Amino acid sequence: MGNNKLIIKKLHFTYPGEHIAIKDISFVISEGESVGIIGANGAGKSTLLMLIMGILFPNTGEVLVDNRSINKKNLSKIRQQLGMVFQNPDDQLFMTSVYEDVAFGPRNYGLDEVEVENRVEKALAMVGISHLKDRSPFKLSGGEKRSAAIASVLSMEPEVLIMDEPTSALDPKSRRKLIQLLNRFKHTKIITSHDLDMVLDTCKRTIVIKGGRIVADGNTKEILTNDELLDNCGLEVPLSLQNCPVCGTKKEI
After folding, report:
1. 28 has which bridge partners?
2. In-domain check, residue 87
3. Mean pLDDT, 10 residues at a time, over the chain (253 residues)?
4. Quick one: which H or E segment has residue 196?
5. Of 13, 75, 89, 108, which is least surrounded by CB within 10 A?
6. Same domain, 144 and 20
7. Are strands 82-85 and 68-69 parallel, antiparallel or unpaired?
8. Same domain for 249 and 165
9. Domains in the chain, number
10. pLDDT of residue 243
11. Within this chain, do residues 12 and 96 fall inside the same structural domain, yes or no?
12. Nearest-CA neighbor of 217 among 53, 1, 203, 209?
């Protein structure tokens, strides 16, 4: 298997009511890759992430992590390798302090308190919010909540970091800080987003999904400058790559 961390084999998933969400999707993600998954609303991005995480299970096909097929028996161990940051940080922050939220995962897996403390301090430092450890997560700004949610995943020391719309609802400064943070991480990363400028800044590879199928998979810059492809998928060229509205000059990349 080499350095492949994640293998998706012919996934097919249908919701009750016969709505087909994922249709025969296959791809491989290697160790250290940063991969963007893009598509219009309803394309199947979130469903795909839930299948990768074992929140949902496919009707046919399989997801393999380090050559192990995800199933209900090994799901707990697999999730120690896969860490997912949800679109809404409030879905992940529920304890009385940031420290307790970040400590929750390691404690849940039975680690001793010394190791828990080490992991919490390390995770908080990685995202730059050590000074917030005693704060209530409900009194944080949007950007601080996002950082705390990421720290709560990093404390589990996952090998693959999965993020669903990470820049959603962030102000410009918080968004830029998040992009800089993601680019520092050495993790294998899978990022779904409508923020194509963020995908351009963080992902060397991009997978485009339409109607539950992969319609393109390749170099991010090549895909995000393909006007026809993006238009056919209900997307637009990132703002940073669009022609200048004043002089019409196209940005060089």
Report:
1. 7
2. no
3. 79 91 96 96 93 95 93 88 92 95 94 96 94 95 93 94 91 91 92 95 97 97 96 93 60 56
4. helix 196-202
5. 108
6. no
7. unpaired
8. yes
9. 2
10. 66
11. no
12. 209
**Three-state SS for 216?**
strand
Same structural domain, 21 and 61: yes
70 within some domain: yes
Q: 132: domain range?
A: 92-157
Q: Tell me how long the chain is.
A: 253
What is the distance between the alpha carbons of residues 253 and 251, in angstroms, rounded to a whole number? 6
Residue keyed to tokens 């795909």: 48
Q: Give me the CATH number covering residue 56.
A: 3.40.50.300
DSSP class of residue 240 equals G
Position 18 scores a pLDDT of 77
Tokens linked to 155: 């404390």
The pLDDT, as a whole number, for residue 17 is 84
The residues, any chain, with a CB within 8 Å of residue 223's CB and separated by 6 or more, are 206, 208, 216, 229, 230
Return the DSSP state at 208: E
The angle that helices 142-154 and 113-127 make with each other, rounded to 10 degrees, is 140
On whether both 102 and 146 belong to a single domain, the answer is yes
Asked if the structure places residue 26 within a domain, the reply is yes
